Amino acid sequence: MTNTALVQIKVDTETKTEVTSIYESLGLDLPTAVRIFFKKSIAVGGLPFELRDDTRSKRWDIYKNARNSIQKNNVPEMSLDEINAEIAAVRSGK
Q1: Strand, helix or coil at 69?
Q2: What are the C-alpha distances in Å from 34 to residues 21, 29, 91?
Q3: Which segments of 6-92 does DSSP mark as H helices, in order?
Q4: pTM to 2 decimals?
Q5: What is the CA radius of gyration of the chain?
């Protein structure tokens, strides 16, 4: 017989009801679903799904796309002074 450990968590009633309904529709009880989550976490060496901040991800994609476009089109790098001068020129209407 393998050793077992008790794991207890607290969640709000609505969450438990909703997730229990989802798992039961898949033929699983809540403890079995949690054990599957644990086993999958072990198998992948982390959370078994991707965590991301979509806002940050979208900003990073914009940066990468701009950077790739600059490199693809051989646009020269600008120094901070050059960038500030360009901004100042646009603001002054020149």
Answers
A1: helix
A2: 14, 9, 58
A3: 13-25, 30-44, 54-72, 80-92
A4: 0.53
A5: 26
